[in-house]
Each structure stands twice: as structure tokens, then as C-alpha cells.
Write a structure and sequence with these properties.
The chain is of the alpha/beta class. The chain contains eleven helices and eleven strands. It is globular and about 50 Å long.
């Protein structure tokens, strides 16, 4: 892989190094011009100061999606769960939202916390974010876990723009997409809360991010994945069929996304959790935690 394909996008201006470390939630640093305080992305830290694991949520989601994993891992690992700008408890505008920008935010957080090499765990959109963060902070990255990732086709750009041209296009699309994300066995109260949370995402932010994911997938995802120089594990549970309907994977089944990943990262470990929706960390926390335990044991051996 040529070196220039592995560097952060020139369109991203990294934050300057942050110097003032405060409490363990919402650490404060300096603005770009140095005139006042600027918060890092919101994050919650738990566990001992060893073998760190950083959790990054998906589109329209938040750090609480990882509560079961944090509870399971924090007795033996430093866990850091983040809220990306315009998600969870963090305000944000559309201008704050891109995959490279989010990757830079996570990378800067790892540097500001002076983390030893960490395993980065991303879900859905967060798979793209942790890939970028790993490339932008290689000295702080020990491994990458991709939880039910995907890759938009180039043709999706026109589909998204046509949907967003309608008065309620984003709200209708968001509800449709998220309702398909849960298996029939999922707790209805949990799925309803996740869907409602996604619908609260401001329209301008949601539209910007969906189009940005499609842009990133078409022009950067394969190359960025191929630039990873650390162990990688993909936990895959769903795929979109030819009708763009989300379906649960079967053991041994592959998808275009998984084939891309195998080609870009031949050493990647692929694990399929069957009969599960898009949120295995919520629907199958025990099975997800077993896979994380195994991967972390190999990385931190």
C-alpha cells in the first residue's frame, strides 16, 4: 500500500495537542487559537490504567450502547467509551461531522489521556471512525474490532440525495433503517429507545453524516482498511440484501463488505454471530463479550 494512501486526509486539520487534563469525564484542553477552553469529545473512563479499550458508537447512537461491555471488561481493562459530536450528550453542528473529523477526535482523546496502545472497538459508523483513529494515532493503537460494519455502494449517493430532497426524507429513512436493525428476539423496549434516539438526531447532522459515510466508503474505506498494521477482528451479524433489506447472517456466509475486508486485511479475524440484529452488543452481550475477551487476550498477551 503506497504511504500516501495511509496518511490522514489532507482535508482534516488535526486539533493541536491538548494540555490541561481535568476530571475523567469531558477532559478540557485549549481551543485552536489558544484563547479559551475546548472540551474533548465526551467520554467516560473506568477500570485500572492498563490494557485500554476504547469504544466508539454508531450513527445516531451513544456511549451507553457499550454498557454491558464496559461492565464486563472494566475490572481488568481501562475502558473509555465516547460520545461523538452531535451524539449522546454532546452538541454539534453538521460542520463537526465527518468520518475523518471523528477519527481525529478519538485520536486526540487517546493522546490527551496518554493511553498506552489500546484496542479500538467501533460499531457500524464507528467502524470507520476507529479505522481513521488507528491511522491518525498509530502509537496509541494495539488492535481494532469492527462490530457489524458495512460499505455503502457508490450508487447510494443518488439514492440518499433523492430521499433527503423530500420534506421528511431523513426522518422517514432513519426510522426505516433503524427498524430493520433489530432481530425479532430483541427486547422491544430497547429497540424502541434506540429508534427514538436516532430520530432525535438533527436533520442537518443526519443528512451530512449519511452522505459523508457514503463518500468515505466510496473513496477511502478500502484503502484505509488496507493501511491498518495491527490485529483486526470483525464481529459481523447482518448484511443488506439486493433489496437493501437488513438480514441476519448465517455461519460461513460472506458479504461484499467482508470480502473487501478480507482483501484489504488478509489477516483479519472474522466472527459471525447468527440470528442477531445490527446491535450484537445489546442483543447478544454475552456472546459479544466472549469474542472481545478472546481478541483482547491475544493482543495483550
Amino acid at each position: 500500500m503506497p504511504l500516501d494512501r495511509c496518511l490522514p486526509s489532507a482535508a482534516v486539520k488535526p486539533w493541536p495537542r491538548l494540555t490541561a487534563l481535568g476530571n475523567r469525564v469531558g477532559v478540557v484542553g485549549k481551543t485552536e487559537n489558544g484563547t479559551g477552553p475546548m472540551p474533548l469529545i465526551h467520554h467516560v473512563v473506568a477500570g485500572p490504567a492498563t490494557r485500554p479499550v476504547v469504544f466508539v458508537h454508531g450513527f445516531g447512537c451513544g456511549l451507553t450502547d457499550w454498557d454491558s461491555q464496559v461492565a464486563h471488561l472494566s475490572p481488568g481493562h481501562r475502558t473509555i467509551a465516547v460520545d461523538l459530536p452531535a451524539h449522546g450528550s454532546i452538541p454539534g453542528s453538521a460542520s463537526d461531522c465527518s468520518i475523518e473529523r471523528y477519527g481525529a477526535d478519538v485520536a486526540e482523546l487517546m493522546r490527551a489521556l496518554s493511553l498506552p496502545p489500546a484496542v479500538l472497538v467501533g460499531h457500524s459508523m464507528g467502524c470507520r471512525v476507529v479505522t481513521e483513529a488507528a491511522l491518525q494515532a498509530p502509537a496509541h493503537t494495539a488492535g481494532v474490532v469492527l462490530v457489524d460494519g458495512s460499505q455503502f455502494a457508490p450508487a447510494m449517493e443518488a439514492t440518499l440525495k433523492a430521499a433527503f430532497a423530500q420534506p421528511d426524507g431523513f426522518a422517514i429513512m432513519a426510522e426505516s433503517i433503524f427498524r430493520q436493525m433489530f432481530h425479532t428476539k430483541a427486547d422491544r423496549a430497547v429497540s424502541a429507545a434506540v429508534i427514538a434516539r436516532a430520530q432525535r438526531l438533527p436533520r442537518e447532522v443526519g443528512e451530512k453524516l449519511m452522505l459523508d459515510m457514503q463518500r468515505y466508503d466510496a473513496w477511502r474505506l478500502t484503502a484505509s482498511s488496507g493501511c491498518l498494521r495491527v490485529p483486526v477482528m470483525a464481529i459481523q451479524t447482518t448484511y443488506s440484501n439486493e433489496k437493501r433489506e437488513r438480514q441476519s447472517l448465517r455461519a460461513g456466509q460472506s458479504t461484499p463488505y467482508l470480502e473487501m475486508l478480507r482483501g484489504a486485511v488478509p489477516s483479519a479475524r472474522i466472527e459471525v454471530i447468527e440470528d442477531t440484529g445490527h446491535f450484537p452488543q445489546l442483543e447478544e452481550p454475552a456472546r459479544t463479550n466472549v469474542l472481545l475477551d478472546s481478541f483482547l487476550a491475544s493482543v495483550f498477551a
